[in-house]
Design goal:
By secondary structure, the chain is α/β, with parallel strands linked by helices. It has three domains: 75 residues, no CATH class; 132 residues, NAD(P)-binding Rossmann-like Domain (Rossmann fold, 3-Layer(aba) Sandwich); 29 residues, no CATH class. It has a six-stranded parallel beta sheet, sandwiched between helices. It has a two-stranded antiparallel ribbon with strand order 1-2. A two-stranded parallel ribbon has the order 9-10. Helix 4 links the parallel strand 4 and strand 5. The radius of gyration is 19 Å and the shape is globular.
C-alpha cells in the first residue's frame, strides 16, 4: 500500500465485514483505497451516508445547475451531504425539517452548509409554497426518508415527470401516493438501499472507486465537511448508543478503537 493512501475495509462485497476489527486480512479486490489527506473521521464515515447521498443525486434524474430538488429529514446525515453535494453542483435544495425548539439554529446550520430553502413540515402544507416556487423551479427529484404525511405533501410539489426516491422510513408510516400524482403528473417512485447497490457491484469496482474519489475530492476542497460527531472510547459504547438514539441530536457517534 502506498504511503499516501489508507485502506478502508469498505463493505463492497460483504456489508459490515471488519466493523469490530482493528486489523484484518483481506483480498485486495475487497478493499477500496481512501486518500490519506482527508480527515480520519471523514474517511471513517464515508462509506454509507455520503455514498447514499451521492447515488441519490446521480442515479435517478439528470440534474443540471439551476434545477431544484426537495428532501425531508434534511438535517439527517444523508440530508446534510445532499445539501453540500447539490450546492457544489449549482442545484437548488428545498429542505424540509421537523419543527423544534432550536429551529432557528438548525436553519442557520443548514444554510451554512449550502441549503437554499429550509422549511418545516407545516409550511410544506401551506399556500406559502406557491411563493417559494416563484423563486425556484419545481423540483425534479424528491428524496424521502420519513414516510407518512410528509411524503404525500412533498410529492404534491414535485414537477411533472419527476422522481421520488424513498431511502428510509423514520415515521414508520406507509408511503401513500395519490392516484392523481401517477396519472396526471406522471411521477416515478423508486426505492434505494446503498447496501444492495454495493452488492450489485461486487465485481465492478469502477463505479465504487469513482464515487469514493469524487467524495474524497469534495472533502479535500472543503465542499463536504465531516459530519458533526462525538468520539467515544470503545468502553463507552453504551453512552454512544444512548446518544445515537437521542431525538434531534444529529451527531455521529464514533467509537475509537
Amino acid at each position: 500500500m502506498s504511503p499516501n493512501t489508507r485502506s478502508a475495509s469498505q463493505p463492497w462485497k460483504k456489508p459490515v465485514v471488519g466493523t469490530w476489527r482493528t486489523e484484518g486480512l483481506y483480498n485486495e479486490s475487497s478493499l477500496v483505497r481512501v486518500p490519506s489527506d482527508i480527515p480520519v473521521v471523514g474517511a471513517a464515515t464515508l462509506s454509507v451516508n455520503p455514498c447514499t447521498a451521492y447515488r441519490l443525486l446521480s442515479d435517478y434524474e439528470t440534474l443540471r445547475p439551476g434545477d431544484s430538488i426537495i428532501q425531508n429529514a434534511s438535517n439527517s446525515s444523508v440530508g446534510q451531504v445532499v445539501i453540500q453535494i447539490a450546492a457544489s453542483l449549482g442545484i437548488t435544495t428545498i429542505n424540509v425539517v421537523r419543527d423544534r425548539s432550536d429551529l432557528s439554529s438548525l436553519v442557520q446550520r443548514l444554510h451554512d452548509l449550502g441549503a437554499d430553502h429550509v422549511i418545516t413540515e407545516d409550511v410544506l402544507r401551506k399556500p406559502e409554497m406557491k411563493e417559494l416556487f416563484k423563486k425556484c423551479p419545481r423540483p425534479k427529484l424528491a428524496l424521502n426518508c420519513v414516510g407518512g404525511k410528509s411524503t404525500t405533501e412533498m410529492l404534491r410539489h414535485l414537477d411533472y415527470g419527476g422522481t421520488m426516491v424513498t431511502y428510509g422510513g423514520m415515521a414508520k408510516q406507509p408511503v401513500t401516493i395519490p392516484v392523481s400524482a401517477l396519472i396526471f403528473k406522471n411521477v416515478k417512485l423508486c426505492g434505494f438501499w446503498v447496501t444492495q447497490w454495493k452488492r450489485d457491484r461486487a465485481h465492478n469496482r469502477e463505479e465504487v472507486t469513482k464515487m469514493i474519489r469524487d467524495l474524497s475530492d469534495l472533502i479535500r476542497r472543503g465542499k463536504l465537511v465531516t459530519p458533526p460527531s462525538t468520539e467515544w472510547p470503545l468502553q463507552d459504547f453504551a453512552k454512544a448508543m444512548r446518544d445515537a438514539q437521542t431525538p434531534f441530536l444529529s451527531r455521529k457517534q464514533i467509537l475509537i478503537m
